[in-house]
Specification:
Length: about 550
């Protein structure tokens, strides 16, 4: 209950209604007071006019009796006139302040003090009295009841003074004073009733205005603001699909329309932000994968560079001893022909020497491949046609395709085939890749397959793709596939230098080699070769 009361006190509708209610109440109260005062003044003016008319009536009714000095008749007239319900008192004073006639017999003969309020109206100054100054209206209180007193001078007339009743007019202009007191009870009752009506009308009008103002404030202010507040809370909670109803063309309706536009813009901005976030996340993932690939490639290149240095050192160290062994084996073979030996012994010795020579030649080839992998020497580069290089390599292994039941799909480079390269080395690398592809499509459960050789390129580089549908390469050995003497073959002839030589050839041309392999589906090698190696471009 306390929370609801505090919420009501701090609400916008309450803060609008209270000042409005107080202002309207103050205006209505002021209006009621002014109206009540005007009504009272109007009633007083009417009563005053009535008193004056009554005083004039009394003067006229007693005029003849006073002229003829019929005091009993005048007394009777005064008593009858005093029987009127609004006449509180009716008396006549002589010029000495003695009540000579009164509706109340007890007052007759009494004299009032010259300092009393009725006398001060005429005797407060030394200025000579005049009839214009002797008429007065007062509102004294008598027995708790408010009365209106009217004092009017009874002037001396020539008709009266000439008869010897009074002094002449010149000596005594005033004979006495007529005092009439009119009761204000009915007037006060009427004013009180009017006051109650004004208060009741003011309260009713204030209540009606309050109810009407409350209804308008609730409809035009409280309800739209409550909808805006609820919508704002829903948006703050994340519901950007919130919309509030808009009615009319006033400022709060415009605020509601602006709120809906804001919510729509926020929804669009959040959707765009989410889309941008997803796109950024995908880009980050792609860049991370690219960086990881680049990192692995750098590590692999550093590893291959170290292996290249080691291979070059080993090749140089083995080349001279192998050459010496081969030379001395040939010399011994020549000398053996001149020696007197049995034919079977000579044949056996020559068989040994032939085996030594063959193995020395094979070791020499391995050394040459190591040197080629290490890039310590190679053929000079010259302009050549990449399509011709690929055609010659395919022609050299064409019979292997037929024997192994391999279908070849060749897609030559369309456009500009020239490039600067060591054509024989490129052909040697392609032969190694083609033979590996043929061997990958032979074996248990395999009866040939399809070989794809595709050449593409642009103005800067040429890409040669060699793909097979063979056994594929397991992912755990992919990082070692280009290392020297690493091989997955079981044949005794496989020494594991084919892919290492291909890697060295591509590196010597300033290119790169990538591969894609799925076990059981095949492997594709991508050779990226610049159209003009960097060293050649600088010399050009």
């Amino acid at each position: 209950m306390g929370t609801r009361l505090v919420s009501l006190v701090h609400s916008l509708g309450f803060r609008l209604l209270v000042p409005l209610f107080l202002t309207v109440g103050a205006v209505l109260a002021v209006h009621a007071l002014l109206s009540l005062d005007a009504t009272r003044t109007h009633f007083m003016l009417l009563v005053q006019e009535e008193v004056k008319r009554s005083s004039s009536l009394v003067q006229k009714a007693t005029h003849d009796g006073m002229l003829q000095n019929r005091l009993d008749e005048v007394q009777t007239t005064i008593e009858r006139l005093a029987e009127a319900p609004d006449v509180a008192a009716l008396r006549i004073f002589d010029k000495r302040g003695t009540i000579v006639m009164s509706a109340t017999h007890a007052e007759i003969g009494t004299c009032i003090d010259i300092a009393a309020e009725p006398c001060l109206s005429c005797h407060r100054s030394e200025a000579p009295m005049s009839t214009a100054r002797l008429e007065q209206l007062q509102m004294p209180r008598q027995d708790g009841n408010e009365v209106l007193r009217h004092l009017v001078v009874i002037p001396n007339e020539a008709t009266c003074g000439g008869r010897g009743c009074h002094d002449p007019v010149a000596e005594a202009p005033v004979l006495g004073v007529l005092d009439i007191e009119m009761s204000m009870a009915r007037v006060e009752a009427t004013v009180a009733a009017a006051q109650r009506q004004f208060v009741l009308a003011t309260v009713v009008l204030l209540v009606v205005i309050g109810l009407v103002a409350t209804a308008f404030v609730r409809r035009l202010v409280h309800t739209p603001v409550a909808l805006l507040r609820a919508g704002t809370l829903r948006i703050a909670a994340g519901d950007l699909g919130t919309r509030i109803p808009v009615h009319g063309r006033h400022e709060i309706a415009e605020l509601g329309a602006a709120f809906n536009r804001m919510a729509e813009d926020l929804g669009a901005a959040r959707a765009e932000l989410q889309q941008w976030s997803r796109s950024l996340e995908m880009k980050v993932v792609a860049k991370t994968a690219e960086l990881q690939r680049a990192h692995r490639q750098v590590l692999h290149m550093e590893k291959m560079a170290s292996l290249g240095k080691l291979s070059a050192t080993v090749a140089h160290e083995l080349n001279n001893p192998l050459t010496g062994v081969l030379t001395y084996a040939r010399l011994v073979d020549r000398e053996l022909c001149d020696q007197p030996l049995a034919d079977d012994v000579r044949a056996e010795l020559q068989r040994y020497l032939s085996l030594i020579q063959k193995e020395c030649v094979r070791c020499g080839d391995i050394v040459k491949n190591l040197l080629l992998f290490a890039r310590h020497h190679g053929a000079a580069m010259a302009p050549c046609d990449v399509n011709e290089i690929v055609d010659r390599a395919l022609m050299l292994v064409r019979h292997h395709f037929a024997i192994s039941n391999v279908q070849v799909r060749h897609q030559p480079l369309v456009g500009d085939p020239p490039m600067v390269a060591a054509a024989r080395q490129i052909q040697q690398g392609l032969l190694a890749l083609l033979m590996n592809a043929i061997e990958a499509m032979r074996g248990p459960g395999l009866d040939g397959g399809e070989l794809l050789v595709r050449v593409t390129g642009d103005a800067d580089e040429v890409c040669i793709d060699v793909g097979d549908t063979g056994v594929g390469i397991p992912p755990d050995i992919l990082p070692q596939i280009f290392e020297p003497f690493f091989s997955t073959k079981n044949e005794e002839s496989g020494v594991g230098l084919g892919l290492a030589v291909v890697f060295g050839i591509v590196q010597r041309h300033g290119g790169r080699i990538d591969l894609e392999s799925t076990p059981g589906q095949g492997t594709t090698f991508h050779l990226h070769l610049p159209r003009q190696p960097r060293g050649q471009a600088e010399r050009g």
